[in-house]
Design brief:
It is a single chain. This protein is of the alpha+beta class. Helices cover 37% and strands 23% of the residues. Strands 5-2-3-6-7 form a five-stranded mixed beta sheet. Helix 1 packs across helix 2 and helix 4 crosses helix 5.
């Protein structure tokens, strides 16, 4: 499926989670790397991974629009920014984790705002899928623009990828930063204000 469609996909367009399929796949994987899936230490591993994957990839079964459905009327058109939202995802290229933080800001239109926790929830819905960081960042921004009709959005993510830390070049301290800017946030002054709030607020 083309990547351009990812931000508008709904749960109906995905298959159901198949725990039995995961168990069988794990057994085959263990055998294929030269392990014995029937040895004592691995006997329950397929069950454990089946349970873990249901949680790790729960975002595949969720519609991001549902997260942002409830909105509130607040007399403001000023920037709303939530920093340091923890995120954990899985790189779709190697199926290894990446983790870090997301900073999400938006400027509401006509005083329509969403609960602050919903921004963190939106990040989680998209992170709980096989992902690449660049697309994850864009999906969060596009969902806010499209669903709450924000005047502008900025999303910045900073992550460490275990596919870089554990294999390949093995650079454990490398962090990748991606950003997505939409609407009035593209204005140099507004974008500068948002980046200043993100940078000055770092722990």
């Amino acid at each position: 499926m083309p990547e351009s469609q990812d931000s508008t996909e709904t749960s109906e367009e995905y298959g159901r989670y198949d725990a039995d399929g995961v168990r069988e796949a794990v057994k085959l994987f263990l055998k294929s790397i030269g392990e014995d899936p029937n040895r004592t230490g691995l006997l329950e591993t397929p069950d454990r991974i089946a349970r873990a994957c249901k949680e790790l990839f729960a975002g595949l079964q969720q519609d991001p629009k549902d997260v942002l459905a409830k909105q509130f009327d607040v007399d403001t058109e000023e920037m709303v920014l939530v920093r340091d939202i923890e995120l954990y995802s899985v790189c779709e290229h190697h199926l290894l984790p990446f983790h870090g933080v997301a900073h999400v800001g938006y400027i509401p239109r006509r005083g329509k705002v969403v609960g602050l926790s919903k921004l963190a929830r939106l990040v989680e819905v998209y992170a709980r899928r096989p992902q690449v960081q660049e697309r994850l960042t864009q999906q969060i921004a596009d969902a806010l623009m499209d669903t709450i009709d924000a005047r502008g959005v900025i999303v910045v993510t900073e992550c460490e990828h275990l596919c870089m830390s554990m294999r390949g070049i093995k650079k454990s301290e490398a962090r990748t930063v991606t950003s997505a800017v939409r609407g009035v946030m593209r204005s140099p002054a507004t974008r500068s204000e948002a980046m200043s709030l993100i940078i000055n607020g770092r722990r």
